[in-house]
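Chapter review. Work through the record for Integrator complex subunit 8 before attempting the end-of-chapter questions.
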Amino acid sequence: MLLNELLCISKVPPGTKHVDVDLSSLPPTTAMAILLYNRWAIRTIVQSSFPVKQVKPGPPQLNVMNQVQQEKELTENILKVLKEQAADSILVLEGALKLNKDLYVHTIRTLDLLAMEPGMVNGETESSTAGLKISAEEIECQVCYDLGAIYFQQGSTNAAVHENAKEKFFRTKELIAKTGSSSLHCTIDEERLAGYCQACGVLTSSSDDSSQQATPYSQIHSCMKSGNYQDLVKIFLEDNLALSLPVQFRQSVLRELFQKAQQGNDALDEICFKVCACNTVCDVMQGRTIDIQFCQLFLKPSKEKIDFLLEVCSRSINLENASESLKRKMAAFLKNLCLGLEDLQLVFMISSHELFIKLLKDDERKLLIDQMRKRSPRINLCTKPVTSFYDIPASASVNIGQLEHQLILSVDPWRIRQILIELHGMTSERQFWTISNKWEVPNVYGNVILGIKDNLTRDLVYILMAKGLHCSAIKDFVHAKQLFAACLELVTEFSPKLRQVMLNEMLLLDIYTHEAGAGVSGERPPSDLISRVRGYLEMRVPDIPLRQVIAEECVAFLLNWRENEYLTMQVPLPLVQTNPYVKLGQLLAATCKELPGPKESRRTAKDLWEVVVQICSVSNQHKRGNDGRVSLIKHRESTLGIMYRSELLSFIKKLREPLVLTTILSLFVKLHNVREDIVNDIAAEHISIWPSSIPNLQSVDFEAVAVTVKELVSYALTINSNNHFWLIIQADIYFATNQYSAALHYYLQAGAVCSDFFNKMVPPDVYTDQVIKRMIKCCSLLNCHTQVAILCQFLREVDYKTAFKALQEQNSHDAMDSYYDYIWDVTILEYLTCILSLAITEETIFMGCPGLEKVSFTCCQLHFVLESDFLPWQLLCLRKCFYTIFINEVGSQS
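Structure tokens for Integrator complex subunit 8:
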């Protein structure tokens, strides 16, 4: 869509085939737009040919499945069109290689000029200074790469096309080498390009054999194709020193050899062992674990296998230039090899080898030989019909792996320290804090921790903190405290900065512990914890890395435990100016503190209102539509306020104090009601303290406000599901969104919780006339017309017109006759008696007069009402009526 808009703006006539257009005769921006579109088309075709891992489907949902199917069909249709036009796109790009001139692409400035006065910009956009300049070399480089990719893809069905791909890729390589780092607008994946070049070198039958044989990939491909496996082994031996072949490629060649051997070619068994031996020694030198395939092939060791293995080891290390680490790895491999052999002759073959003598000291060699001579005889491995996996000798890398596994699972600080000491004793080059991707430390802490020079201390501090944070996140506060305490004790010795960091994290942990434990039952936190929270907010230690979440939790903690006096009067002014959560907490505390007060208290409410309005405001931008008209775009997350709306919502969901939640709910409800197109207002407590208008109404994102109101009231009801004012807000939201059954359910629930399930009168400030009228409308739209007539009686002025109209309805979905017990208004009863008597015809009288029972019942009821006390009768009817409606609604909801 965006590329089509660019073509329209660049004055490319719609419907014109790009292949018929002479690019050299077009303005630079127009030619560039055509190039961009066709490059995108080629890249999309190439990318669609790559295999994609299918997403595991979840439970079938009809709407979601339909949407996914529609998206899939739309994508397939676009690909179908692009593939049909692929030949034209290739011709356009081939023609672009002949341009040999700089082009220009539109920028925001030129697009803004076009949006304002298209006529004035025609000349400027065609001039040499309009837009962003793209050099001819950069254009040629990118076009050659895209053409090479599409030619390479087409080569799967037409091998001759690989020559074209090779030509384009090598030209791309030349241009990248020519432009170098000076290229600003040409970004090509050079690793992928190198892979393309190597693949083309292997696949094309070039007359220049020397260029083909220059890469190990082409040599291996040729050996596998011709069956020259001895040369294949030589290539692997040479690469053990050069290390140019990736481990995945080495393993894929070995798998292919295994497959050929399993098909009946017994001569390949020896080749498989030799290639596997090369791979194993390569793995040892690079610190990887030994593959199980080597252990399986070495179950029956022989003199020939030992000779070849020693040759591989000798040719894989240059003792003069090798590092001490490489020498230790090779020595450990040879030593473990000896320990795994039963035949002493084979052991002495290794121990007497020149490489073994140079790598191991005299004392180490003598100790090893003595161990081999003194050990008790065991069954030779080659005589076992089935070899147990556990009989394979454990290498140093296996031991390290086992210790790393224990390190990942352990949450005991002392055990973690012991494991790290053992690991660092085995190898000093590994960074053990990286072995698990679950160990995450905030970036503000990571930079300080990774600056520790001692490797063991750095690993220990990082792992203790990461594990402590993880335990805190899963609410395992006991282990989290142990880990943090151990880390605090460690860093106190050398880093005052990290000591303060750990004290801050332990404060946050103590807040979490209290809120999840004693705080749930309403027990106030100890004064010591409140003092530490205040101390954190007032802390002025320079250069201490701080996490914003700690300040956020501290402010929420003080609000939840009604420390309004401190937040209002004692928080330092610089802290309010620099920390948005402290400022928000201060405004909330001040508003809650003065809520019952006079009109002067509205000043703090106004300040809070302005802050929230600014957070919910959006920045505007203009965008040109397909029809050429300029439209308005709203950015949902604006930086105009002191924080983002999502951050505000996250902070509010940490609050539990009812008055604070009621205040913030009231503010958002008022903000929701301010919009001009509102049809149904939402009611809330204290709504009169907020301003009644906003100067810049268009800047407020009212859709986001509506979503926020819904999320807040849902959260509030999880804190207290029996707060009738919150239930009324939830009901009003459902009413405003035309969900009448749910709205009626929450209106009735609000009445039930504040009247002991209708055993007392519902307070008039809960069931106002507005609430009753909305309940009437809900019942009417749900076709519960008898209930409408009953609810009309509860209005301060009985709505006879609505009640009479409801009683006339024939298509009623409620119980009708059973609700007549709950009508006490004489006028409604008289009207009901009248319409029931008129409904009786001669035919119904002749058939047994079933309708007379209704009339007789209603007349008796009318007589009873006239002779009885009115108020007790109304209360009785209210309780019975609402009980029945409520039960019916609950049943329908479930």
